[in-house]
Amino acid sequence: MNKKLAVIGASGHGKVIAELAEILGYQVTFFDDAYPNIVQVEHWPIAGDFNALLTHKTDFCGAVVAIGNANIRQTITAKLQQAEILTPTLIHPTASVSKYAEINSGCVVMAGAVVNAFSSIGESCIINSNAVVEHDCQLGDFVHICPNSALAGGVSVGSKSWVGIGSQVKQLISIGENSLIGAGSTVIKNIPDNVTAFGSPAMVIKNN
Ligand SMILES: CC(=O)SCCNC(=O)CCNC(=O)[C@H](O)C(C)(C)COP(=O)(O)OP(=O)(O)OC[C@H]1O[C@@H](n2cnc3c(N)ncnc32)[C@H](O)[C@@H]1OP(=O)(O)O
């Protein structure tokens, strides 16, 4: 079986994904639009830009978008789907994912993360190292739950929102779409769409 996986984005996040993919038995090839200005990331060569991947797509069993920016992740994911390139979900062996949870395609679930029963994770989400998504949470597409953040039971997070590192969200809270929760926040009231909020308790600071 072809286990050659394209990783798009030669970033720090890309390096973590590359190692995760290797742990899962894939052979990693990077693609990045900075090519040919950048031809290598650590010991991994960069094979070309995104168009090069499209040209050689039949060489690969799929691709992972290793880009933190949700809008860019969304755009590239759409192009991959248009090109009929599969976007597998990668789950680290030390992550704990309930058999009753649903995780859509293109997600990465990093080391030590927990996704508990009856939670639903949208497309191309990042559940980062040691993040906790408790029972009955609903995450839209392209969400990022940063390292060491915890969503209590029944929390919803709208598409393209970002919960910053080391934050916690009280049970049944709703965070809107395209919103950003700053690092180290405690969210105890609902957060609307398109805002940045931070602090303990988290307050809306600005419109995005
Ligand atoms: C594997 C990984 O690396 S995953 C990435 C993890 N990274 C994160 O989670 C980062 C999340 N980002 C943040 O927390 C950012 O600080 C943001 C987005 C909330 C704000 O960023 P900016 O809009 O650039 O704000 P800026 O840095 O200019 O700060 C503005 C003010 O808010 C304060 N502030 C910024 N972030 C926070 C925060 N999280 N909590 C409390 N205060 C904050 C600053 O101290 C500053 O205060 P001052 O005006 O009194 O000096």
Automatic annotation (TrEMBL):
Residues 4-80 form the PglD N-terminal domain. The keyword Acyltransferase applies. Keywords: Acyltransferase, Repeat, Transferase. Transmembrane segments: none annotated. Pfam families: Hexapep, PglD_N. The keyword Transferase applies. InterPro entries: AcTrfase_PglD-like, Hexapep, Hexapep_transf_CS, PglD_N, Trans_hexapeptide_repeat, Trimer_LpxA-like_sf. It comes from the Bacteria. Belongs to the transferase hexapeptide repeat family. NCBIfam families: NeuD_NnaD. This is Acetyltransferase. It comes from Colwellia echini.
